[in-house]
Amino acid sequence: MGKYFGTDGFRGEANVNLTVEHAYKVGRYLGWYFGKEHKAKIVIGKDTRRSSYMFEYSLAAGLTASGADAYLLHVTTTPSVSYVVRTEGFDCGIMISASHNPFYDNGIKVINSRGQKLEAAVEQEIEDYIDGRSAEIPFARREKIGRTVDFAAGRNRYIGHLISIPSRAYNDYRVGLDCSNGSASSIAKSVFDALGARTSVIHSEPNGLNINADCGSTHIEALQKFVAEQGLDVGFAYDGDADRCIAVDEKGQVVDGDRILYVCGKYLKEQGKLNRNTIVTTVMSNLGLYKACDREGIRYEQTAVGDKYVSENMMANGYSLGGEQSGHIIFSKHAMTGDGILTSLMLMEVLMEKKQPLSVLAGEVAIYPQLLKNVRVADKQAARENPRVQAAVQAAAEALGENGRILVRESGTEPVVRIMVEAEEDAICEKYVNQVAAVMEEEDLIQ
């Protein structure tokens, strides 16, 4: 991870540690970098945060000042930017979003021409330019100055792409959607309606300040209540930029990314479409997923946390399915990055084909209790590498044995260290999480 770019782009509080000057310089560098040999074409999407408009104009100014043409998708999802980049011949794409963070945060995600997250080496070059460690970039002049182009049609093509994927209509299937007052608000319902579902929607009235506020995939209880009260067959919740999906079954029970991976992985295996009989997970996936995969003869590989790492592994090895517990699920046949709405459609495919409710399909995975605690620290690396902290982690791992595990890692987007413990009982999880956190406090590592 660099100074500015973490596992999911350049993220921070708007006009505090992510400013319009940062965005302008990102645009300046990308416009110059991709325009060395031809006039660069770069597409921009944004979520519904109030600050997204500000950053959109700053990025567009930087791009056009460097000679690139900036194509504006306006409010759209991260996966739609990925789709448009790789199908419409753009040099790269930019998504303005802080994903599941509160409205006052924002972020800049850069997507390469293959529809994947930008390479770390180029991110480092952008950081060097921002901090004045590289040569100044010349301004475009006269006819070489770039222009902005309204490209709302690109979002419509993405909607058409999603509608074309399912092999059957949903025939009055009762579906609930929680759009998190974010990007999905402009896309999700129209897709499900076009496919014949009886679609009910909550949190689809963004005002710039309510994105992710007690709703969406990180506040799933709202959709649980809605599905149960309305008697729906299934529900899907997205995050702010709709690259995540968490499902709710007909009983109002949560079906997280791990269970989605299992349900879709088992179905693809039965169809002979699970490449190399393998799914790709991150180190945060639950032990219950792995035990269920072992039972079904499904192989798995682990990566670091972040869908960019899952995607890299999948593309390098030709795998068809991978994702995260948090709901970033990648179906490589259709997308290069996590896509919440696509994930919903793929789950619907399984439900329609198997003719079984989601509670039955997902109930085959016995999820182990898991406790995750975020500890805010002054120095993430120092906290994780502290000898007493490492000794406490090792002692917990030995005590948990084969029926549990402990994982301590640095956040890629926040000044926190995450302590995660899985065990057979909640009390055991809490015991070892608190033990490690207490050592951090004793060592004066907590901010």
Automatic annotation (TrEMBL):
Its EC number is 5.4.2.10. Its cofactor is Mg(2+). The modification Phosphoserine is found at S99. GO terms for cellular component: cytosol. Binds 1 Mg(2+) ion per subunit. Activated by phosphorylation. Residues 3-132, 158-252, 256-364 form the Alpha-D-phosphohexomutase alpha/beta/alpha domain. It catalyses: alpha-D-glucosamine 1-phosphate = D-glucosamine 6-phosphate. Belongs to the phosphohexose mutase family. This is Phosphoglucosamine mutase. It comes from Candidatus Scatomonas pullistercoris.
